[in-house]
Amino acid sequence: MARDGLPTLRIAVVGTGLIGGSVLRRLAQTEHEVVGWDLDPGTRTTGTDLGLAFADRLDDALAGRDVVFLCGPLSSLPTGLAEVVAAAPKHCVITDVGSTKMAVAVAAERAGLAGRFVGGHPMAGSERAGLAAATPDLYVGAPWVLTPLGVPGLPAFRLLARLVLESFDARVVPLDATVHDDIVALASHIPHILAGALATATDRSDVRAAVLSLAAGSFSDGTRVAGTPSARTTDMLINNRAAIARRIGLVRSALDDLVDAVVAGDAERLLSCLSEGRHARLDLLARHTEPASRTFTAGESYNEELTYLLELGASGGCVTGCQIDGDRVTYAVLKPATP
Amino acid sequence: MARDGLPTLRIAVVGTGLIGGSVLRRLAQTEHEVVGWDLDPGTRTTGTDLGLAFADRLDDALAGRDVVFLCGPLSSLPTGLAEVVAAAPKHCVITDVGSTKMAVAVAAERAGLAGRFVGGHPMAGSERAGLAAATPDLYVGAPWVLTPLGVPGLPAFRLLARLVLESFDARVVPLDATVHDDIVALASHIPHILAGALATATDRSDVRAAVLSLAAGSFSDGTRVAGTPSARTTDMLINNRAAIARRIGLVRSALDDLVDAVVAGDAERLLSCLSEGRHARLDLLARHTEPASRTFTAGESYNEELTYLLELGASGGCVTGCQIDGDRVTYAVLKPATP
Prior knowledge:
- Chains A, B: This is Prephenate dehydrogenase.
- Helix content of chain A is about 50%, strand content about 15%.
- By secondary structure, the first copy, chain A, is an alpha/beta fold.
C-alpha cells in the first residue's frame, strides 16, 4: 500500500530512453513493482547493469501488469499501443509520455480504449538522450499533462493522477488532447524552432567562429535545445504541425514588431513591445496561484468532474492531490491568481 | 607590482550598476587601487555599505587615475566620455563596457582620443540589474572584447589586455569596432529579439496562463533574457540597429526554412535544417582551439601587430596572455582548430 492509499501496482515501462528511462528509474525507487523493456538489446543490458529490472521479451514485460507507460518515439506510439493492448491484461491502464497528444488519442479511441488509455506528457526533458542520461528526479515539481478520453476515461485518469502525484512529485495538468497540442506549440515546439533558427543561421553565417567565440548567455540559452538530437525534434514538430501552423503567426508578428521598431530606431515602440514580453517572463518566474479543493460525490455526474478538470488545466491550473474515499473523490488544486 | 609585472594601477569605475559594479567588486579584490562613482547617490551609499571605496564627486573619483572604466548606460557613453576626459589626467587610459562599440569609437576618434581610448565589451551579464546584483566573478572565463582605434591605440590596448587577463581571468578578443557590432548582432542582440518575440507572443495569446503553466526548459531558456529590464535592452538594440538589420535576414531565412518544412510535413528537409543548427550548437559546447604564441619586437611594425590581433579575434580566437619584456611583446593566444 503506497501513501495516500494507492495500492501497490505492477507497472511496465515500454521504451527506456531519456524519458521512459527516467520514469523507470523513479518507479524503481517506489513500492510499486516495475519492469522495463526496450526494443534495443543494448539498452536492456545497460538497464540491467544499472540494477533495473528488465524483461527480455515485450510479452514477459506486459504479463499481469496493472499500468503500462508507453515511452517509445512519438511516431511509433500508435503502433506501440496496438502491441501493448494485444499482450497486456484487459484491466491494464495504459498511458504514454509523447509530446503531442492528438495522434495517439485518435488511435486509442479508434481501438475502443477510451476507458483504459489516458494520454500523458510529463513536461520536462533534456537535450540529452538515452537511458544513461535518465534520472529519477527529472519530473519532480514539473507539470505532467494527462488527457482523459471523455467520461469513460475518468477512473483511469484518477489512478494515473494519484500515481503521478505520489510517485513522481509532479503536478497533474488535465487537458483535452487538442488543447494540449495547441498550448505546447507555444510552450515547447516553437521555442525549439526559434532555437533551431538561431543556431542554423549561425552555422550558415560567414562569422560563425567569431559568433561561437563571443556567445554570451543569451546565445547559449537561446540555442540550448538546438542540441537535442535532430530526429527527435523533427518527430515532435512534424507530429504537431497543425497547431504550430496555427500559432507561429503570433510569434512572427511579435518578431516583426520588434525588428521593425529596432530598424526604424523607434525606441518608444520597442520599449513597449519588450515590456509586454517582460511581463509574461516575470509571471513565469513568479506564478501566482491559490490553493483550492473540490470534492465530487456519487450524486454528481462524471461530466461535471471532467468539465471541472479540463477547465482547470486550460486556465493554467493543476491538480496537486487526489484522494479517493469510497464513492467520493477530492482534488486538491492550484488555480492561477491575480497578484 | 601585480603578477606578470603589471604595475599597481589607480583605477576609477564610473557607473556601478550590474556591469560596472562587477568590475569594481573584482578590482577591489586585486592589488590595484580602485574607486567607484555613480550618478545615483543611493548606489554610492549601497557601494559604501558593501565596503567598496566610493567618491562623492566624479572629479574626486577621476583625480590621479591611470585607468578609467566608463560603465554607464550605452546611450550615455559619448557624453560620459567627454566628462571623463575633462577631469582625468592626460595620461589616463579610458575604456568602456558598452555592448555596442561603433558609436563610442566614433565619439572617441572625433575627440582625438585614439591613443587613450580603447572600447571594451565584457561578454557576460545577467537579466538582473544594479550594484546589488553585481558579482566579482561575472567575467571569469568570459570573452572580453577590446577594440583599439588603430595603431595609436596599441600601447593602451596592451595595458588593458594585461589588466583584463590578470585581474579578471577573462579572455581578450581584439576586434575592430564595426566587426564587433556585426558579430554581437548574432551572438547577443538577435537572441534578445527572439526571446522578446516568444515572450511577447505569449503575453498576447489567449492561452497565456496555460502556456506559463506548462512551460518546460525550452520555453524558460528561450525567454530568459526577456526578463532583462526593457529600457536596457531597448538601448542596446537601438544602438546596434544597423548591424541587426544586416543580420536579421539570415535568422528569418532559417526560421522560414524550418517553419515551411514543419507545415509541409517535410521531415527530411526539417531534419537537414535542424542538423545544421545542431552542428553549430555542439561546436559551441566543445569549441576546439589550439594554443599558439607570437612575439613582436621593436623591429616589426605596429601595423603588423594590430593586423595580427584583429584577424585573431575576427577568426574566433582570443588572447590568453600578454607579456612585455623591454621592447618585445609576446601574446599567448587560442586559435580555432578543426577537431
